[in-house]
Structures are given as structure tokens and as C-alpha cells.
Design brief:
Blueprint (H helix, E strand, L loop, with lengths): L13 E11 L6 H22 L8 H23 L1 E11 L2 E7 L7 E3 L3 H11 L6 E3 H9 L6 H6 L3 E7 L3 E7 L52 H10 L6 E8 L9 H10 L4 E5 L8 E8 L3 E3 L4 E10 L5 E10 L5 E10 L9 E5 L5 E9 L12 E9 L3 E7 L4 H12 L3 E7 L21 H4 L4 E5 L8 H14 L2 E5 L5 H6 L4 H6 L2 E2 L4 H8 L9 E2 L16 H10 L11 E2 L4 E6 L5 E2 L2 E2 L1 E8 L2 E6 L12 H22 L4 E5 L10 E7 L11 E8 L2 E9 L6 E6 L5 E8 L10 E8 L3 H4 L6 H10 L4 E3 L16 E6 L3 E2 L4 H20 L4
Parallel strand pairs: 3-6, 3-8, 8-9, 9-37, 11-17, 18-19, 18-20, 20-21, 21-29
Antiparallel strand pairs: 1-2, 2-38, 2-39, 4-5, 6-7, 10-12, 12-15, 13-14, 13-16, 16-17, 22-24, 23-25, 25-28, 26-27, 28-29, 30-31, 31-34, 32-33, 32-35, 33-34, 35-36
Helix pairs in contact: 1-2, 2-18, 6-7, 7-17
Length: 839
């Protein structure tokens, strides 16, 4: 927290020199001084004359001369005492003035401008020493100015004032302090304070602490990774950190993209009130932008081999209305680096820059992880080309989804779903039909001879399907183990209600852990409602689909949104259903009852819903006539079930293993924003892994790095760490799975898409108007073109102050030594006179 300026100690850097002088406090002036000197001379002459003309005999001439000399010394000593001699220390202090240099370090400074403004082109060419500037990074222009060899910018600023250099984006960071030329090497004052050191309070609230540096070795590097530009915070904190020290000027090197904090008018007003000149060096091209950018690339994170999926690009354009854009989709294999062009499309920019979304269809025939890049060819004289592409990562998997199906009886839904999963090569299904004889051979392509009950057995499955199970065979321990599988290990759970056991399932207290996982709230009067509407219906009621449900992955029965709605208009009806009170707050309702009688205060009765539960997912289907959808087309029924099961399995599949789960707090951060990575790891017995730390890895392009995750003491088995991306692109974060079994993935991973902050790219041109306001409304500032920036130090005056401080006088006469001397002289005179028999 930056301190209140009123509480700051005087933050004026000083260096000083001390000397001692002796003075006479009562030295007379004018005629009084002449008269005093004449009187003293007369007394001295009289004393000598009297001893020379002494009438008495007995004293020799030498004795008389000695006595005259002693008398003169006594008179002189008395005269000096009368003038009061003192010794004074004079301390001369230089209070340094400051020049503050603020260098924009936000992400927009990393942009390379293709200059179109003729004056700016000439200025950049002159500064950079090139015949044609072409595309030049704004950060490179700033570094060229600050580290110029021919006309050293910082050294010339320091010739008059001490210089403090900051970089700033949304926060300010002190890079270093350059001494003014008049300062002496650091030493110690008489009171022990280091000469030339930064004053207390001068850097409080700013990091890192100030360090003196040679201008030639300061090594300023504009990293250009800040997420926003907050000039007000940097200006106020840098100025207020100096307390009452004189400020000669504040120099700001920026493109003017101020998108956080107070307005430029308020910053200029603050500078004017403090009488501080603001000198602005404008970086970037001020021309109106012509820009095309890929705003978003939408693609599924995980798909199955040979399952078609779409990659959709949303594009925005500015200043290019009516032009045709050429859009390309490229695919790069993350493992091999091999890249190919998948497809090319065209899109026309409509009025106001509107561009229709561009969609590419992909049919993955290979397994692996692929980076899809949507790139738009630059238009002529485009201001900014770095935002013409964007990426999305897709993992194509062929590992089979393990499904455990538990059914209370051989219903139509059980039969059709079992056969569907047995035929699909992407599933491994084990079935437990509760009404079958124990000696019977169970359905499924992985045959089991008992209902899996232990954690080791249940955690092998990705999804558990409960198709109207009989509660009598399900124990409370079994329900709690399923709860752990879903909540902690990313598993999926589906419950489908039916007439035989539905009411019993919702009444059985032992199965409460299972019911708590479902995305619905039980109606305590459900059985009364069933008795009122009847347990059997002879006519079907329509389904009602919420508008927000059509785009859900489970509900996509057609490839495009329009066709999908048409399909759902013809598919589905409901006879019996189990009434529930309402969906849970975090649930997504997929289907509701369309009969007006089947409504309550929360809307139509929920027939199908899904939700996230911990790291897993759950689903509820409250009617048993789903199998009737087959009459509308076998493909629709099969596609709905496959999509539903895969959606439920994604929690476990994204974790990759029951023993490892990787979570990234923000999977699409901005450049320079910290990314928090958490991992939950289990040992061979599915207990929390006990280690102090583990090592994860991250990779972007061909560069790799290690990330240490530290154990969380409050969450056993969880580890956490952070890293800060230093470039845009897709980062792959991964961690090894402990105690992985043969055939299991050896590691789990997440993709982190790092992009430039949107705030920094929305207005890519230099904001010349804002910079002009800052300069003109401050106290005598100016906007400097880049080619004149090296002349700026000559316009900064020297405002340092010199002060002389006198110490309290030390009296030299009022002490025992002077008194003893007078007594000695007077006694000596008396003794000599008596020795020579004089009065």
C-alpha cells in the first residue's frame, strides 16, 4: 500500500560538505571600530611609555621591556575577550532535484507498426538510422532513445538532475536511479547518513528498491507484457514518492493507449497543480487503423477419432469495409511439429466491419494433440498484423471409455443402450442386470461376475449408468464410493428413473450420497403428484427444450444450429415421468415437460439435466420412454446417448487418470498474467499422495520449462504452483501420473492459450490527441516527435537547491584556560615588579 503523502518523511536527496570558521561576535563596525582600535593602540602605547619612563631605580632596561610586554598581552587578551571569539560549523547542503522517466511497458508496446503517416515515417527513419523503417516495434524505439550511444539520453538528463527511471503498465516498477553529475561518490556525513543514498520514503511502495546505476550500464529492457496502461497510478506514485524534493520534469514514453485509471485530463490537472511539466514522447503510428483480427477460435478441447467436429472463427475488422478476406486453417501436430493447411475460406467484410463467423469441418483420422490456427491474410496497409491469427488446441483420443451399467431390469432402454455401447469401438461396457441369475453370463464386452464395490474396482470406470436400479442391492458404502469417484476423481454418473424402482430409490436414506450428486432437488410430495396424474399415461405429452440447451454438447443432433432445432421439433415425447421440485442452481436443464399440467412454481417439470459435481459430472433423466425416439431415426437415439456418455466421461478423461487431476485456474490468460496450476495426485491405494512438492512441465513451441508445485497443507494430495508466460501461443502444461498402470496415460495435461490483452489491442494506433492533452494541460510540457526526443534533455532545467546551515556558536573565551592565562600574566607582572623592587 502506497503511503499517504502527508506522512512521508522529507524525501529530498542531499549531499553536503562541512567546514569550521572562527568569528568575533562583537566586532564593531564603522567609526566604532576605528575608535576601538585607536583606544587599544593608545592603551598599548601608554603601557610601554610608562615602563620606559619609570622614575624609580632598581629595574634594568630588560626587566622594564618584559613588564611592558606582559602589560600589552594582558590588554590584548582583554580586548579579545571583549570581542567574544566563537567557533562555528557551516554545513553546505545540495538538495537534488529529480527528472522522472516513465517508460510504457504494456503489451501494446510490443506491436510493430507499419507506418503510414509521412511525418512519423521520416522521424522513425531518422531515429533508427534506416533508409526505410518498415515494421518497427514500439519497444525498440523506446530502447533506442534511452540507450543512444551518440547522444546519451539518461546521462544528459543526469547532468542537471538526479534521474529515476520507471517502467509502467497497470503497476509501476522502479528500474534504477542515475546520480546527477555534481554528486560526489557515496560516503558518510558527520551524522552517519550515507551520502548519495536514496532518501527514506523515496521508493516506498515501488519495487524493486532504488539502486544507483551508471547510465551506460542500466540496461533498460522494455519487455512489453503488461495487461493494461495506467498512467495515473505510475505518475502519482512516482511523484509522491519524492515528497517535497524538487521535480524538474516527468518524461513519459508511451503510445497513449491509456485504458485504466483516471483520464488524461485528470492526470494533466494533477501535474499542473504540482507545477510539473509533462514531456510526452509519442510511440507508434497515429494513423487511423486498418485492421483485421481473429477475435476467437472455438473448438472442442477433446474429440474422439473419426468423430467430425467444427472449428469456428469469429473475425472483426476495422477500416476495411467491403473487402474480401482470405481465411486459412492450419493444423500442427504438437508431437512432431508437422504442419499442414487444412482448408481455405473467404469472408466479406460487411458495413461497419461485420464479418460472418467462418466455420471449418474437421474429420480427425489420427490420434494425438493438434494445434489449429486460424489466420487471415493481411489487408493492404494494415496497421497491425499480429492479431491476424489465433489458436485452439484439440486432443484426438482413441482410448476407450469404460462404462459400468447397472439396471434393475431388462427394460428397452437397457437393451438398446447395451447393444449400442457393445457395437461402438470407443466404449468398453460392463453390465450388471440385477434381475439376472448370478450364474448367467452378463452383457457387455468386458464381462463381470459381480457388482464392483471397492474403490480399486469402481475407479477403473469413467461413467456409471444407473438405469432404474433396485436399491436393495446398493449399499451405503457403495453409494459413498461412487460419490468419491464423481466428486474427487472426475467420474460421471447418470440416473434414469422408471416406474418399478424410481420412488423407492428417492426414499432410501442409504442412497442419499447418490441423490446428492444429481442435478435436481427432490420433491417431497413426488408420490402424491404421481398418484394424481396416474402411474400410466395412454397419450404422450410434448417435450420442451430451453433455448440455452440447443447448443449444449449433449443436445447436438445435427451439425449446424438451424438443422439441430428442426430435428428437435420432430423428436421426442414423454408418457410417464418422475416429478422433481426444481433443478439445482448450477445445473443445466436439457428437457422439460411440455404439458401445462406438469408445472410448478419453478416451471415445467425437469425431465433431463446435467451439472458439474466437484471434478466430475452428473446427469438425470426423469422419464423412461427415451427408447421410443428410435422411431424418428436410429441415429438420433444413438447419437444422443453417445454424446451424453462422452460428456459425462470428460471429467475423468480430461484428468487422464483416477490418480491424477490437473487444474488450470485460467486457461486463456493474457500475456504477463500469472497462471496458477493445481494438481491432485493419489498413491497406489487412491489415498492422497504425501510429498512436499512435485514437478510439472510446460512447453510452448520447442521451449520447455519445469514448474515446481508445492503441497497444500489444507488439502491433502493437492499441489499448487504458478508461472508467468513470456510469449503468446499455446502452452502445454503436464504432470506425470503416479503409479500409472500399463495402458494408462503416463501423464495428464492442459492447454493454456496465451494471448495479448484485449485492452491493449482494441486501439492499436498511437493516441496523439491524448498525448497532446497531457502535454499542453500540464505545467509547461510538450509532445515530442520521436526524431526530436534526443533533444529533450536540453529542455529540462536544473532545479537543485543549495542551503547553508550554521551550527550553534562555540565560545572560545568563556572557559578556564583563558581565565588561568589572564591570572598567570597578571601574577607574572606583579612578581617581576616585586623582584625588581617596583611598586
Amino acid at each position: 500500500m502506497f503511503p499517504d503523502p502527508s506522512q512521508l518523511i522529507l524525501a529530498a536527496a542531499t549531499h553536503e560538505e562541512a567546514r569550521y570558521v572562527t568569528e568575533l561576535r562583537h566586532w564593531p563596525e564603522g567609526w566604532l571600530a576605528v575608535g576601538g582600535l585607536a583606544l587599544l593602540a593608545g592603551l598599548l602605547w601608554a603601557g610601554v611609555w610608562m615602563y620606559r619612563h619609570e622614575g624609580r631605580l632598581g629595574a634594568s632596561g630588560r626587566a622594564r621591556a618584559l613588564l611592558a610586554g606582559i602589560r600589552c598581552l594582558i590588554l590584548l587578551a582583554l580586548a579579545v575577550i571583549l570581542l567574544e571569539p566563537v567557533r562555528v560549523q557551516i554545513l553546505r547542503q545540495w538538495i537534488d532535484s529529480y527528472t522522472i522517466v516513465l517508460v510504457d511497458n504494456s503489451a501494446s508496446m510490443d506491436l510493430a507498426d507499419n507506418y503510414r503517416d509521412p511525418d512519423t515515417v521520416e522521424g522513425v527513419r531518422e531515429l533508427m538510422g534506416t533508409s526505410e523503417p518498415g515494421e518497427v516495434r514500439r519497444a525498440d524505439v523506446a530502447e533506442t532513445i534511452l540507450q543512444s550511444k551518440d547522444r546519451p539520453f539518461l546521462q544528459r538528463l543526469a547532468d542537471n538532475n538526479r534521474v529515476k527511471v520507471y517502467s509502467f503498465s497497470n503497476e509501476a516498477e522502479l528500474l534504477g536511479v542515475v546520480r546527477s553529475a555534481r554528486e560526489r561518490p557515496a560516503g558518510r556525513r558527520s551524522d552517519g547518513v550515507a551520502v548519495g543514498s536514496e532518501p527514506e520514503g523515496a521508493t516506498e511502495g515501488l519495487n524493486p528498491p532504488a539502486a544507483f546505476a551508471d547510465p551506460e550500464t542500466l540496461g533498460i529492457k522494455v519487455t512489453a507484457t503488461g495487461p493494461a496502461t495506467n498512467l495515473e497510478r505510475a505518475f502519482r506514485r512516482s511523484v509522491e514518492s519524492l515528497g517535497s524534493a524538487p521535480i524538474a520534469a516527468v518524461i513519459v514514453m508511451t503510445d497513449g493507449g491509456i485504458n485504466q485509471g483516471a483520464s488524461v485530463e485528470e492526470v494533466a490537472r494533477f501535474a499542473h497543480e504540482r507545477k510539473i511539466p509533462l514531456h510526452l514522447v509519442g510511440l507508434g503510428d497515429p494513423s487511423s487503423p486498418r485492421n483485421v483480427r481473429v477475435v476467437e477460435v472455438i473448438a472442442p478441447e477433446n474429440v474422439f477419432q473419426k468423430d467430425p467436429f467444427a472449428v469456428t472463427a469469429n473475425i472483426a475488422a476495422e477500416g476495411v469495409s467491403g473487402e474480401m478476406l482470405h481465411v486459412e486453417l492450419r493444423e500442427r501436430d504438437a508431437a512432431t511439429g508437422a504442419e499442414r493447411v487444412v482448408d481455405r475460406r473467404q469472408a466479406r467484410v460487411g458495413p461497419g466491419g461485420a464479418v460472418e463467423p467462418v466455420q471449418f469441418e474437421i474429420n480427425p483420422d489420427r490420434v494425438g494433440r493438434f494445434i489449429y490456427t486460424v489466420a487471415v491474410d493481411p489487408v493492404s496497409a494494415e496497421t497491425l498484423t499480429e492479431d491476424n491469427s489465433r489458436q485452439a488446441a484439440v486432443s484426438v483420443i482413441d482410448t476407450k471409455t469404460r462404462v459400468l451399467l447397472v439396471a434393475g431390469g431388462p427394460s428397452w432402454n437397457y437393451s438398446y443402450v447395451t447393444h449400442l455401447l457393445e457395437r461402438d469401438e470407443t466404449f468398453e461396457v460392463s453390465c450388471w442386470l440385477q434381475t439376472a441369475d448370478y450364474s448367467a453370463v452378463r452383457d457387455g464386452n468386458i464381462v463381470i461376475d459381480h457388482l464392483p464395490a471397492t474403490a480399486e474396482e469402481l475407479f477403473e470406470y469413467d461413467v456409471i449408468l444407473l438405469i432404474d436400479p433396485a436399491p436393495s442391492e446398493l449399499t451405503q458404502q457403495w453409494a459413498m464410493t461412487v460419490d468419491r469417484l464423481v466428486s474427487n476423481h472426475g467420474g460421471g454418473l447418470l440416473y434414469l428413473a422408471s416406474r418399478p424402482h424410481g420412488a423407492q430409490f428417492f426414499r432410501d436414506e442409504r442412497l442419499k450420497p447418490l441423490r446428492d450428486l444429481l442435478p435436481i432437488v427432490i420433491d417431497p410430495e413426488a408420490e402424491l403428484v404421481l398418484n394424481q396424474v396416474g402411474h400410466y399415461q395412454t397419450s404422450a405429452s410434448p417435450l420442451e427444450i430451453p433455448d440455452t440447451a440447443y447448443d449444449h454438447p449433449v443436445m447436438r443432433l445435427a451439425d449446424d444450429p438451424a438443422s439441430n432445432r428442426l430435428v428437435w421439433n420432430d423428436v421426442g415425447d414423454v408418457f410417464w415421468h418422475f416429478p422433481v421440485l426444481r433443478p439445482k442452481p448450477v445445473a443445466t436443464v436439457l428437457l422439460r415437460h411440455g404439458n401445462p399440467r406438469m408445472r410448478n412454481s419453478y416451471g415445467g417439470h425437469v425431465l433431463a439435466a446435467v451439472q458439474f459435481v466437484g471434478s466430475g459430472r452428473s446427469a438425470y433423466i426423469g422419464f423412461d420412454s427415451l427408447w421410443r425416439w428410435r422411431r424418428y431415426g436410429k441415429g438420433f437415439y444413438d447419437r444422443f446417448w453417445v454424446q451424453l456418455i462422452r460428456h459425462l466421461a470428460e471429467g475423468k478423461r480430461l484428468g487422464g487418470s483416477g490418480r491424477a487431476l490437473l487444474v488450470v485456474e485460467n486457461e486463456q490468460p493474457s500475456l504477463g498474467e500469472a497462471v496458477t496450476v493445481s494438481a491432485r495426485l493419489l498413491d497406489v491405494g487412491f489415498a492422497p499422495l504425501r510429498r512436499d512438492q512435485v514437478t510439472a512441465r510446460y512447453q510452448v513451441d520447442s521451449d520447455r520449462g519445469d514448474l515446481v508445485l508445492t503441497a497444500r497443507p489444507d488439502r491433502p494430495g493437492w499441489f499448487e504452483g504458478r508461472f508467468i508466460p513470456d510469449r503468446t501461443g499455446t502452452y502445454r502444461v503436464s504432470i506425470a501420473v503416479p503409479y500409472a498402470k500399463p495402458g494408462d496415460p503416463p501423464e495428464v495435461g492442459k492447454d493454456v492459450l496465451v494471448s495479448r490483452p484485449n485492452l491493449e489491442l482494441l486501439q492499436p494506433q498511437m493516441n496523439k490527441a491524448a498525448l497532446t492533452i497531457l502535454a499542453e494541460q500540464s505545467h509547461g510540457g510538450r509532445l515530442w516527435p520521436v526524431n526530436q526526443a534526443l533533444d529533450l534533455p536540453d529542455a529540462i532545467p536544473d532545479l537543485h537547491e543549495e542551503v547553508s546551515i550554521r551550527s550553534r556558536p562555540i565560545t572560545l573565551w568563556d572557559n578556564g584556560v583563558v581565565l588561568a592565562g589572564l591570572v598567570f600574566l597578571m601574577s607574572l607582572e606583579w612578581g617581576v615588579r616585586k623582584w625588581n623592587r617596583l611598586l
